[in-house]
Design goal:
The complex is a heterodimer of chains A (235) and B (369). Chain A is α/β, with parallel strands linked by helices and 235 residues long. Helices cover 38% and strands 26% of the residues of chain A. In chain A, β7, α6 and β8 form a beta-alpha-beta unit. In chain A, α4 packs across α5. Classes of the chains: A alpha/beta (235), B mainly alpha (369).
């Protein structure tokens, strides 16, 4: 369970997050809102890249904010980025291993964990191909595979579907849906693809101007006229 | 291109694990270098043996510069000063304790490694031009210190300076007292240094450096300790520069403070870029450019300083058209030829999708900055 309490981020006079509170309990959670709503800022606070001026974030009862970014990774926090971050001169295997190196896995367990993550994302046959030779979908999958090693507890995904075609988005959807059961991790998913959010997320948090606009079961949140006005552009 | 399989499909269960082939350069490096060195030692005269011994030593330092630049994108302009630090400590411990040369050499490497980490501390906050300027200033500081105190030459006291009449020469290792033997010894040390870097590149530090290069937030999200792995790279680069100083010191028996100016650090960096910072043999090319090209010009009655003009043009060319340097171009040519032969014998659909050179370069790990 994720508990966000009175979270505020301030840059000068701007507040990308303004007293945000939420309790998120579903295995896959959507995070939506118009551009500038504070979605990526929230993920950056989770990751430890931005320090909030007030508030707290608890993951399964553990306060995340006092931990350094690397300690958060060891505590099971994982992240994928809006622009996929894959080292071009490492193979898909080594890209995944690069995280497994730093979370205290030992000996043969490391190889088995990497293998499981690559197999789950369907990258098995491409495991020894260099990052530079992978296509966009495969690079996205490498990032997801990297997030799956070493017992993840919360995976933050920032627009994983951006730039993918219809068939690839369908594969991505299947992959995300399988994560909680296969790895026991919660997924917090930002995406502008409402179909992806609807199909995968049990609950959805909607942000607008750094504040909580709505939170609840995805279908009812997306049908909410207030959300329609702010996010989906309906009259 | 092969499509990745969906979860649940039989193919996804098969994951290709890395084989021992990834470590083949650890065998290739000593074999190629030692074979080349033996051939040179049989054919070259004393002048060229001496020149190429210096080139081998400087190639070690260039390998450290390439490690920082190629692996982490960091520009350190005080590496030639670290050669001086390594040389100073090797001379000092050699004269003071009469240690076997290898032990003195190791002490020089470790001392330069520690100083290298200190020089690298700004890298934790600075990047690009600012880091380059700070390290260049450190190189200037070393130049002032070494001009004031000089290199040890067998005297007493902390600085080990003797009267001109009593100056001693550092003995060479017992294994290699002759010029040819010492040249082979220097190439052996170079091979070990390059193997050490290759081993790093293919294991946890190399993967961590690759993540840092991909982006510091990416590295943090992968749990990489930025402080530790940047300091590690500076320590390794300093260690190699220190070994280079020790090898130079025993080659001549003494070192001259005038040879360690800040400008030499600039030359070393520029020629490492020209030689190629992304392939192991780029450092060897840089060492040859630094010492062999000026000697070649001198040998033909041309002023060796003309080399600086040639190097300037070469750097411009490298930065504009060949960021992977001469070594990258050679590697690209080799991959293209291999691809040509492979595609003629067994054409595959995958090879038809993209130009062979692009595909091979990407799949075999050639870096494209």
């Amino acid at each position: 369970m994720i508990r966000i309490e009175n979270l505020t981020v301030q840059f000068g006079a701007v507040r990308p997050l303004d007293g945000l509170s939420a309790e998120l309990t579903q295995p896959i959670i959507g995070l939506v809102g118009p551009n500038g709503a504070g979605k990526t800022t929230l993920l950056n606070v989770f990751s430890g890249f931005i320090t909030p001026v007030t508030g707290s974030i608890e993951l399964d009862g553990r306060d995340l904010l006092p931990l350094s970014p690397t300690r958060r990774v060891q505590a099971g926090l994982r992240r994928t980025f809006q622009t996929e971050q894959v080292a071009d001169d490492l193979s898909a295997w080594d890209n995944v291993l690069a995280l497994a190196d730093h979370i205290g896995l030992k000996g043969a367990t490391i190889g088995d964990d990497v293998e499981r993550a690559l197999a789950f994302t369907g990258l098995g046959p491409r495991a020894q191909v260099m990052g530079a030779a992978l296509n966009l979908y495969e690079r996205r999958m490498v990032e997801i595979a990297r997030a799956l090693v070493g017992g993840p507890r919360l995976i933050l995904m920032d627009e994983p579907g951006a730039g993918l075609d219809e068939a690839e988005a369908l594969r991505l959807r299947q992959c995300i849906l399988g994560i909680p059961k296969a790895f026991g991790a919660t997924v917090l998913l930002i995406d502008h693809d409402v179909d992806l959010i609807s199909a995968t997320c049990g609950e959805t948090l909607v942000l607008d101007f750094g504040k909580r606009l709505a939170l609840g079961p995805t279908r009812s949140v997306l049908d909410d006229p207030v959300v329609h006005r702010a996010y989906l552009g309906a009259a | 291109m092969t499509s990745p399989s969906l979860p649940g499909e039989p193919a996804h269960l098969t994951v290709e694990r890395p084989g021992l082939g990834r470590y083949r350069t650890l065998v290739t490096i000593p074999l190629l270098l030692m074979a080349g060195a033996v051939l040179v030692s049989l054919a070259a005269n004393a002048y060229w043996i001496s020149t190429l011994t210096s080139a081998a030593a400087l190639a070690l330092a260039a390998a450290g510069v390439a490690l920082l630049y190629g692996q982490l994108g960091l520009v350190s302009l005080c590496q030639f000063s670290l050669i001086g630090v390594g040389g100073w400590v090797t001379l000092r411990t050699g004269f003071a304790f009469g240690w076997p040369f290898e032990l003195s050499l190791l002490s020089g490497g470790i001392a330069a490694s520690l100083v290298g980490v200190l020089c690298g501390l700004p890298a934790l906050r600075l990047k690009g031009l600012y880091l380059a300027l700070v390290t260049l200033m450190l190189a200037g500081g070393f130049q002032v210190i070494i001009n004031a105190f000089g290199f040890p030459d067998g005297g007493s006291g902390f600085f080990g300076r003797a009267d001109a009449s009593q100056r001693l020469m550092l003995p060479r290792p017992l294994l290699a007292t002759g010029n040819e033997a010492y040249f082979l010894y220097a190439v052996g040390v170079l091979a070990l240094g390059l193997m050490l870097i290759e081993l790093h590149r293919r294991t946890k530090p190399g993967r961590s450096w690759a993540m840092i290069r991909a982006g510091e937030t990416t590295a943090l999200s992968a749990g990489v300790n930025l402080l530790l792995y940047k300091a590690w790279a500076f320590a390794l680069a300093g260690f190699l520069a220190g070994l280079a100083g020790g090898v130079l010191a025993a080659g001549v028996g003494q070192l001259d403070g005038r040879a360690f100016s800040a400008a030499e650090s600039l030359n070393l960096f520029a020629l490492t870029v020209v030689g190629g910072a992304y392939n192991w043999f780029g450092a060897v090319i840089a060492g040859l450019l630094l010492r062999a090209v000026p000697s070649l010009l001198t040998d033909h009655g041309v002023d060796g300083y003309l080399a600086m003009v040639i190097f300037g043009a070469a750097l411009l060319h490298a930065l504009v058209t060949a960021p992977t340097g001469i070594a990258g171009q050679i590697a690209g040519l080799g991959q293209w030829l291999t691809g040509l032969i492979a595609s003629e014998s067994t054409p595959s659909p995958a090879q038809q999708e993209a130009p062979a050179s692009d595909k091979l370069a990407a799949e075999t790990g050639e870096r494209r900055p």
